[in-house]
């Protein structure tokens, strides 16, 4: 286990007192990206966290409905502990909770070894692979979400906030009648998440906030915090923010697009080559090829729910095929038109329900494999991106994607076989529970006539 410096803990506790912080919230990501954590009194901080903070290991495998799924070393092993060690460098005051600071924790086993199921540790391991190549990944996350308000007349008790058609890319009260987005943008900026812009998205009640690019771990930390913060800020306003992939039949889904490039030890961009095909270097093209080669397995981590696959289809602005193109938003991998330091790929595969650590880690793992193995991408997409004669289809359901992840041994080797085994077990349980649940659609379709 990473040693916790006693002097650093004492200095942190003194800084909390100076800053008027009386509660420290230690948070970390479970498998699906939900934040788990504990509030610690600041005047007991150094004493309480000196040896880490213990949690039950099966918190990784607790479903949204509270089911404890048996993973290796979990329920059947007697529900042993994991240990959360605060990463003091991630300390941030919470603007909307006066007197509260937030710290992200790293997860270890009781014997001191890093937890292989921890999404943050998975990403750290992948970043280390790039370091072995003398490269540092750079990532810029883009997340969409819906804001809902309570409505007792609706079957699920919620309606879309500010619901109106044709408000894509509008700003101000027209699409945000209570300035909820504007207030959120200010809170998120004060939280140190390096958000840069916000806008109303395509569907009624749907918004997008962009985060600036940075090294992969920092970008994932900020995206993880971003999702929790947006939800918490909405709760404080009596609303609900959801990153569910497709919450409504009559509107589009919410995406999680990831911009990715890599630089060398001197900070030079490695995807750019003015003399290369399409202005891309061989490294950039190999990274694209790796992402395409492992796309079926990536779907399990970028589209991780049963609901995710209802977002896909022709003319949805979500990718449908395993392809890439130049400044083409119908392709799975889009290469934006900028070159030089801004040379990058945009992976448009993911939906907003994806765990930021795992989405970024799996993208980097696939790109790493492409770079390591010097893969060559197929011909780029020209024009319309929903013609299945041009490229292979992405998985059309979670079960197929989980099968692909389980079968992709090269990707599992980079992400960690224990992590993949745990994730697959968790998701197979989700599929089993869904297959046994009677949906509203089934009742509507069959009850009257059959």
From TrEMBL:
Q: Which residue numbers delimit the GS beta-grasp domain? A: 19-112
Q: Can you provide one Gene Ontology molecular function annotated for this UniProt record?
A: glutamine synthetase activity
Q: In Gene Ontology terms, what is a biological process of this protein? A: glutamine biosynthetic process
Q: What is its EC number?
A: 6.3.1.2
Write out the coiled-coil annotation as residue ranges: none
Report the SUPFAM superfamilies cross-referenced here: Glutamine synthetase, N-terminal domain (SSF54368), Glutamine synthetase/guanido kinase (SSF55931)
Question: Any one cellular component term from GO for this entry?
Answer: membrane
Start and end residues of each GS catalytic domain: 119-450
Q: Which InterPro entries match?
A: Gln_synt_N, Gln_synt_N_sf, Gln_synth/guanido_kin_cat_dom, Gln_synth_cat_dom
Which PANTHER family does this one have?
Answer: GLUTAMINE SYNTHETASE, LENGSIN
The record's family statement is:
Belongs to the glutamine synthetase family.
This protein's name: glutamine synthetase
Q: Which organism is it from?
A: Nocardioides albidus
